[in-house]
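> call design_seq(struct)
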């Protein structure tokens, strides 16, 4: 199926970023939100991305104007009537998503693809609200959408093979890297990234190290930004939503660190409202110590040790669970983490990294962390089976990959 015109619903940071990517590929794109002020804010965000390219000499002002002309801001569903593919990027509420998809289905051509950019909600459940559920699919971008190469393509139970193939071709036409992922809560990347970020939050509330030191340590490991800077960029509200969905599906190993809920309660949402773990607007400056003290008084846990492994091993362990559930292949898991989170290229992804340090070492370290920090580190069963079968990684020439 050829896509002549696309649409995006929700002109927040993700929706606007997605519309920028689509317009950059040369396709007209309708960008909708509930009121003109939000639409204008989204359009301004897109212009800012293009302007930065103009400033760097990567495009001319007239090329920017041509690209901006491809973006059609609207507050009406009527403007979607000739769209071949629409991506919903509204906030994470199933009821709202159902309403959006039902409105869309009323105006779209029967052949159109209805995609969701949800971070973690069930595509199958979203699809259950519409007649043409075979046309519903997850097309999940990563923040910042104009930069991150990965797109997760997630079929729901009802999605047709044709829709999946069209979504993959569409992602490629945007010059992105599509990875097909079996549906599960958090899909692939958020399912691995959130436990990593959550572990940083535990370490913070336990006063394991300062957040600056932990961010520096993770950059030292090779991540493009530290976990606290990333939590702030993604938004503590978004992270709390995704954490809740993961907990609901996978249980106690995904229990969110108390500080994440407290951040939301204290309206510290991150870069978007000027204060998160870091302070972006000096007028909002407020000490987090009383919040941390209260958590420590409640949990009785403080002064635990911090190491980059503590965070990265959460990622590796969840990758192993994903592998066991056939969410994606080992190479797709690694590729997705490289392209979706900037996991260091030289380490090849969490599974290549596990093979390099030794699967047996990973299991021993997870057991140790499980004893000191709790059962959320309990090794995924596949890891123990690999060790028992001498699949230890590079040193035995076979592990997650063959060497
Ligand atoms: N919008 C558009 N472009 C941006 C941008 C933004 N918000 N932020 C940075 N850029 C561009 C810059 O203009 C620059 O472009 P250039 O190469 O043409 O000059 C390029 O990106 C690199 O930026 P910087 O030099 O300023 O900074 P970095 O090299 O540190 O890159 C980063 C910034 C791309 C954000 C990098 O730190 C990174 O990859 N961080 C990890 C982000 C991540 O993990 N994202 C995934 C989160 S999970 C998710 O989104 C799922 C959701 O469901 C929750």
């Amino acid at each position: 199926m050829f896509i002549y015109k696309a649409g995006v619903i929700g002109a927040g940071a993700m929706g606007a970023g997605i519309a920028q990517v689509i317009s950059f590929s040369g396709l007209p794109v309708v960008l909708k939100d509930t009121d003109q002020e939000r639409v204008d804010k989204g359009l301004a965000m897109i212009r800012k991305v293009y302007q930065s390219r103009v400033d760097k000499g990567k495009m001319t002002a007239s090329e920017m104007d041509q690209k901006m002309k491809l973006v059609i801001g609207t507050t009406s569903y009527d403007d979607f009537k000739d769209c071949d593919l629409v991506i919903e990027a509204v906030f994470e509420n199933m009821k709202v998503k159902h309403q959006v998809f039902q409105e869309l289905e009323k105006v779209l051509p029967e052949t159109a693809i209805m995609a969701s950019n949800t971070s973690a909600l069930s595509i199958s459940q979203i699809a259950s609200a519409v007649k043409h559920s075979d046309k519903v699919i997850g097309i999940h971008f990563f923040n910042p959408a104009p930069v991150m190469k990965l797109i997760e393509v997630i079929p729901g139970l009802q999605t047709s093979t044709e829709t999946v193939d069209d979504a993959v071709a569409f992602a490629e036409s945007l010059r992105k890297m599509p990875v097909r992922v079996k549906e599960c809560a958090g899909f692939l990347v958020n399912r691995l990234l959130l436990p990593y970020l959550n572990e940083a939050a535990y370490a913070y509330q336990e006063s394991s190290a300062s957040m600056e030191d932990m961010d520096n340590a993770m950059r030292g490991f090779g991540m493009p930004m530290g976990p606290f800077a990333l939590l702030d960029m993604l938004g503590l509200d978004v992270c709390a939503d995704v954490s809740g969905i993961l907990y609901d599906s996978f249980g106690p190993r995904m229990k969110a660190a108390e500080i994440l809920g407290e951040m939301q309660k204290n309206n510290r949402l991150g870069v978007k409202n000027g204060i998160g773990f870091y302070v972006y607007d000096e007028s909002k400056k407020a000490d987090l110590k009383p919040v941390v003290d209260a958590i420590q008084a409640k949990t009785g846990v403080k002064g635990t040790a911090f190491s980059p492994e503590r965070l990265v091993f959460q990622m590796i362990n969840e990758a192993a669970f994903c592998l066991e559930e056939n969410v994606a292949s080992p190479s797709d898991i690694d590729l997705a983490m490289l392209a979706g989170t900037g996991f260091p290229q030289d380490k090849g992804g969490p599974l290549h990294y596990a093979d390099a340090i030794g699967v047996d070492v990973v299991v021993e370290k997870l057991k140790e962390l499980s004893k000191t920090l709790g059962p959320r580190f309990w090794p995924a069963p596949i890891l123990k089976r690999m060790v028992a079968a001498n699949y230890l990684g590079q040193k035995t020439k076979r592990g997650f990959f063959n060497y």
